[in-house]
Specification:
about 475 residues, alpha+beta, eight-stranded mixed sheet, three-stranded antiparallel sheet, binds zinc ion
Amino acid sequence: MLRTLPWLPLALLIAASMASTLHAQAAPQEQPTLHALATAPSQTELRATITALVGFGTRHTLSDTTSNKRGIGAARRWVQSRFATIAHDCGGCLEVVTPAQTFTGKRAPQSVEVMDVVAIKRGKRDPQRVIVMTGHLDSRVTDVMDRTSDAPGANDDASGVAALIEAARVLSTQDNDATLVFAALSGEEQGLYGGKVLADYAVAQGWQVEAEFNNDIVGNSRGQNGVIDNTTVRVFSEGTKSNETLKQADYRRYHGGEVDSPSRNLARYLDRLANDYLPDFKVHMIYRTDRFGRGGDQVPFLQAGFPAVRVTEAHEDYTRQHQDLRTEQGIRYGDTIDGIDFRYLARVTALNAITMAALSRAPAPPNGVTIEGALATDTTVHWNRVPGAAGYRVHWRDTTAAQWQHARAVGDVDHTVLKNVVIDDWFFGVSAVSADGYESPVVFPGFAGSFERSPAPATAAAD
Ligand SMILES: [Zn+2]
């Protein structure tokens, strides 16, 4: 006892100082709220939405807009009424807007008004920071100009619309610091028009869009070749920004950043959240903007300078996409509701809801991130502090690794020195952490990784 007594106050002192250090460093915490969201999406709700949308016969962008039973107009009004019901149930937490533009193009020669149905849940602390989830309401058959034939579009993309309405429902009862936007787009099949309508709307509103999750074809777990995988979802992300200038591309080519656009780091964020909160479900990150030679509504967002990814099922069945309803040589063609795996769709919905909740509660991703350390054995990382952050984490990974491997909590500061971490050998990034342990995505240094909106493509091309 005599020997140990003098040690006791010292041990307490050490423990106390460790505790205060840990507190100051604001480590990410496991969040019961996010665990609850993992099982919140209802298969019944998802099925009801897809059933209703398929029931409108066709939702072709050029189809009837006046009937209440058939066509894109009826489908739009139905989505609006669903949002209104959710808004009513949460005491008016959602605003519904319907931005529209008229387009003429190869697939819309007579000009068409393309209207999006958008529910907005304003953020409590930081309403200009915006997290977006989209899917497209319009559908098609074999001939993209066929505006009258039945085009159920159960998977492409009533599944995405069902997911975003259900995400809006499960998130409607929760607080969010940043604004959440749930948008059923139109005009996708005629030329990604609805994505442009919403991206333009976001710019006009001065939204700082931190993330756009485009859910297109998310309800089928059986591939055309018979492979069944109900535990994986693909997330496509561009490697370098759509609108970097030649000068920025030169810098990035030499210093790195070709696999660290903000969209790519959003994909990593989804991947990590799936690991942490969705047992038996994982993200397959694909280092591409979209599937080979194909596109989606995330593209107009990327062109507008916003981070965006495409979320899509792991294995597609092409006999169900863009097909006239028919049977040929024993094969049934067409995008009907019997192709939907509702349990799978609920998991994809949960991944979106968890990610939106996490982003909206975390501080903004830090900006002004820079690194230095050439000809030195240490690396110095700088960033600008962001509102709502209680601390920051510096991350690094092997230059060939897909996911961030090492992280250090560094407290509420605007720079740190990583001792004996040589700048040449790693990629670096910084995240912000709130007092209650929500972490932002990791931001790679410089223009290549910044989440801030980059200039419009026209400006980019001029440089
Ligand atoms: Zn689609």
